[in-house]
Design a protein that fits this description.
295 residues; alpha/beta; Rossmann fold; globular; ATPase_ArsA/GET3; hydrolase
Length: 295
Amino acid sequence: MQTKFMLFSGKGGVGKTSMASTTAVHYAEKGKKTLIVTTDPAANLSDVFEQEIGHKVTPINGVKSLYAMEIDPDKATEEYKERSLAPMRELFDEDLVKVAEEQLSGPCTEEMAAFDKFIDFMDTDEYEVIIFDTAPTGHTIRLLELPVDWSKHIEESAKGSGQTCMGPVALIQDSKKKYDDAIAILRDRSQTEFVFVMQPEETSLEETQRSSKDLAQIGIHTTKVIINGLIPEEETIVPFFKGKYDRQQKVIDKSKDLFSDLMIQTMELFDSELKGVEMFIKSAEKLFEGSDTNE
């Protein structure tokens, strides 16, 4: 079984978590063992699924094959440091371990730990689908650029001082292969989908186009765009909504021209907040209406 990875990104407030959760419920309802993980420090999966989740894989109530986790950056950093230092504790005295611990206390380690946790899920074959609900676009692109930078940094440091901003090369050399493998998976369109979520507005479209190009520069390609927040056509009897609807339709047409080689899905506004399993089942039916039944 090959795991399918899906990353959701986009500007803040466009509905990434809602669309990632909708997609996760869709696959789980089809019987695929699905995990949704958020890398956003301001994560609210607990709020949208209306149950406590936190820094542990948690079964979602009401959907048999769905699990969720919110990565806590502080806990991820502690776990990463402990994992790096554990082998040293058996071989070296306390003073040497303390020096290594100090070298693993910079912001560089925090970034590495967050990504390390993120790609831990790329090493498992426990789930058929893993969905990453990421932080707003700029943060996500930085997160995905990191392994490319780290891989080079570790390689260059190994030839020179033996020190990196994350500590001695000896402690992290094994991580290089892990990062190289993760980069390969992220760039492989047969394993990874990268989905941008946007609002039907010109500024949102421009941001999506710009971010998609930035990602392409590190070899990661956009595979799908979801345009979220459309006014339903039956509501256009009011002139205010008719004007807004017409402007939204122009943005959709323009998006289809700009992303002519990508799948574009649309999602209408609901008259109630999109949260809770029942609502996600309802939104999944709309989002995947008419799509391939095997998707």
